Each structure stands twice: as C-alpha cells, then as structure tokens.
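Predict the holo structure. Ligand: glutamic acid.
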Amino acid sequence: MINNRPYIGRFAPSPTGSLHLGSLCTALASFLEARRQQGLWLLRIDDLDTQRNIKGSVDNILKTLYTFGLHWDRTEDYQSHYLKNYEEILIDLTKNQQTYPCICSRKILLAKQPCLCRDIISTQAHSSLRVRINPCLISFKDKLQGLTSHQFSNQNDDFLLKRRDGIIAYQFAVVIDDERQQVSQVVRGADLLDSTPNQIYLRQLLGLTPLNYMHIPVIIDEGGYKLSKQTRATAVDLKKPQAIIFKLLNLLKQNPPKELNQSPIKEQLEWAINNWNPLFLKNVRAICNND
Ligand code: GLU
C-alpha cells in the first residue's frame, strides 16, 4: 500500500443516464471495499461534460444507490461546483510552461497528422490545452490487475487537460477531484485502467501523494461489448433490488449462499461486507452477463 491516508473511496458516475448493471456493479464493489476497510465511501457526480449530461440522471442515480442500500458518506460532491478551481490550477501550470494550447481538430489527430502545436505559440481562441509531458516511465501496481506501466515518450503523449469547447478534460478533473475529496483508494472499472498512468503523471506533476488502485472487471454482454449507455444497457430495475444484488455478488465471484437471494438488502450487504474478497477477481478484466 503506497498511500497511508485513512481509507477514503468514492464512486464517480457521470450523469449521462440511469445506472445499468455494469455501473451498479462498480458502485457495489467500491462500496464493499470501503466498508470492509472501515473507510468512507463518497459519491461524486462527474458532471463537467455538459453536452453529455442528461436531465434527471442525477436524481435517478441517487435514488438507485439509495434503493440498493449503497448509502454514501458526507453530501454528494458535484464537479460543476469547482470550475474556478480547475481553471486556477490550469493557469498555474501554464505559467510554468507545463501546458500549451493546441489548435488541432479531432479530425486531424485521428488522421494521425503530426501535431506541431507544442513548438508554436498559438493565440487562437479555440484551442485546447495539453500537458507538455517529460519522457518518463509510469508504473503502478493495481490490487487486481497487477503491474501496469506506460512509457511517456514524446509529444504524441501530451494529453488534453482542457478541450477545445472549453470543457475540463476527465484526466485532469479526476486528479483534482480525488485530491479535493482526500481520496486514498480508487476502485473503478477496468475500462479506466489505461487512463491511470495519465492521472499518476499529473499527480506527480502537481506534487500529490500517490493513490492505491483497484480496477474491477467490467460486465460485458454475450457479444463481448461492455454494458454501457452506448450499447443501450437498460437501467437496473428498482423493483427487484434483492435479486439484482444477489446476481451482482455472483458476478463478482463472491459465492453468496443461496438463501441470501431473498434476504432484505441490509442483510445481503452485511453478508457481502463481512465476506468481501476482491481477490477472487484477480486478473479478471471482464465478466460476461448471460441474460
Ligand atoms: N465518471 C467516470 C465514468 O463514469 C468515472 C471516473 C472515475 O471513476 O475515475 O466513467
């Protein structure tokens, strides 16, 4: 363990729709890990990408977590309340020449044309902001996925901190958010494993303590696609919380006893906290949901 702050975990959904089985599974795993470690479990609404936010989703997410007994500590946190804060940190990084404006469109970058912005001072209004990386190797040991490394080598690795449309990029926001909430443990879906080196890079740049990571498998459908809003995963049924928790405990390889199927949510969660063993998920990146 590299971070010895008291255990603070979090669940950070984007309000882009209702929670589906996959997102609820992530919530449950991070809740169980936090409770098992007698830590705090915080809820953060990742609502910076205003174009993707869907009206009503926040209420739906809160209601769903509540119905499933996943009660969070403190009041929920909203990224959108801290816009000034992100901007101030970007100004500081820019003053120190650690960022630069980039005018390349997505189309240019997707066509793999070289981005020359690093060496040109652009004054165009519609530019994004990239971090000017220094070549280095970032390695970290994920509790389930083992050692992961990424070599940052050249300007192609200069990732976005702020998009051309002015929206603060996820990679940057998440670092500031985790620090604001004093998070010590990140438990989230394995689909985000590859973005972790960028976040560790930024933490080092900002002089922040390293975090502990645990990337849990994502749920995929029979076609091998991750359950997501894009693949039209349906919202979890709020009328059947017990059956769903039981199903998720099985998907998370916790082997719940059969009789737990009909137990009240509170009892199911008590059993799950007492018996939680994430190591049954070691090296598993995806779990197939058969129905
Ligand atoms: N908001 C992100 C998502 O819904 C998760 C961020 C995180 O856990 O780091 O995919």
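The chain has a mean pLDDT of 93. Residues 21-36 form the longest helix (16 residues).
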